[in-house]
Amino acid sequence: MKATTGPRKNEPELSIVIVNYDDRAHLPACLSSLEKAVSGLSAEVILVDNQSGDGSPELVRSLFPWVRLIENDKNVGYPQANNIGFRQSHGEYVLFLNTDTVVPAAAPAALLAEIKARPEVGAVGPTLVHENGRFQVSFGKKVGFLSEIRQKLILNPYYRIALRHSQKLRAVGWLSGACLLARRAAVETAGLFDEGFFLYFEDIDLCRRITDKGFKLVFYPAVRISHVGGAATSARRWQSRLEYRRSQLRFYRKHNFRSSLRLLRLYLKLTVLALGLGASKQRDEERKSFREGLRRILAGEDA
Question: Which one of 29, 212, 215, 240 counts the least CB within 10 Å of its CB?
């Protein structure tokens, strides 16, 4: 599919939407980098805050008054907050960005030039690197239980080495939502983020629906974005693992991946059993809570 819409008069060409939840630690570096990166571009920056309790909104108001701040009265999750920001944005292109990123000065312009030159492309994603320069894998092809294992055990280690030398553009099946530049028309045609997810898989789901509508996804390795990773979830590790499995099950069910769903359910049942066998020796209350959470999720699947 090729996009036919053009820029709207007197409105920014690029909108940057950031969702924040208790990540005051990384916000200054992210927003400071953006202030330089959007200089010279027709751009707006929108930050949607999910009722942070760490003073993030106050920091944005005092140090970054050029950022349009939207404050939710509760944590509505990542997909819904992104949709709120998207609906309030005006750009023909929308960059969805995590708070724990640092954006080089030339990166937005380079990503923007790439997607503008390819009307068939619905979204483009850069290389993500850790602060120490180690490469993260921010793209993939098929998603399913066995393909996820293959990607994590085989492809990810390979890509981390290969990406050091590759500048080749490649068509992919999904891109990470940590830094995702999308064509507004593609997001609208796909139906925005699915708010049935709370955290995890919402970016892969959106990418799948964008490609289902005939758009292509492109990984652009020449652009590199620093990404800490896990900033919003590191303090809630076990709860985050539960959310991952809940979203994974929903994704497989939504897209009718029956064999993957059966394999994942079997794996999770074995995990519950293994955690139960070690319960007498297990003093970690978070692990016990994780086990009970998995049991409730699987019980809900059976209902």
Answer: 212
How many structural domains compose the chain?
Answer: 2
Task: Return mean pLDDT, the chain.
Answer: 90
Check pLDDT > 50 for residue 68: yes
Give the least confident one: 6-15, 67-76, 136-145: 6-15
Same domain, 126 and 223: yes
In percent, the amount of the chain with pLDDT more than 90 equals 68
Query: Residue 182 phi/psi, 5° resolution?
Result: -120, 150
pLDDT of residue 4: 45
- pLDDT of 255 > 70? The answer is yes
What's the Cα-to-Cα distance from 151 to each of 63, 138, 219, rounded to whole Å?
A: 41, 11, 16
Decide which of 195, 227, 259 is a domain's last residue.
227
Rounded Cα distance, 32 and 17, in Å: 15
Strands 121-129 and 101-102: unpaired
Phi and psi at 190, nearest 5°, equal -75, -20
How many C-beta neighbours within 10 Å does residue 242 have? 19
Inter-residue contact 140 to 173 (CB < 8 Å): yes
Instruction: Tell me, yes or no, whether 59 and 207 share the same domain.
Output: yes
- The radius of gyration computed from the CA coordinates of the chain, to the nearest angstrom, equals 20
Q: What confidence tens digit (pLDDT) does each residue in 19-60 have?
A: 999 999 999 999 999 999 999 999 999 999 999 999 999 999
The range of the structural domain enclosing residue 288 comes to 234-302
Q: Hey, which bits of the chain come out as E strands?
A: 14-20, 43-49, 68-71, 93-97, 101-102, 121-129, 135-136, 139-140, 170-171, 174-175, 179-183, 216-227
Is 208 in the same domain as 266? Answer: no
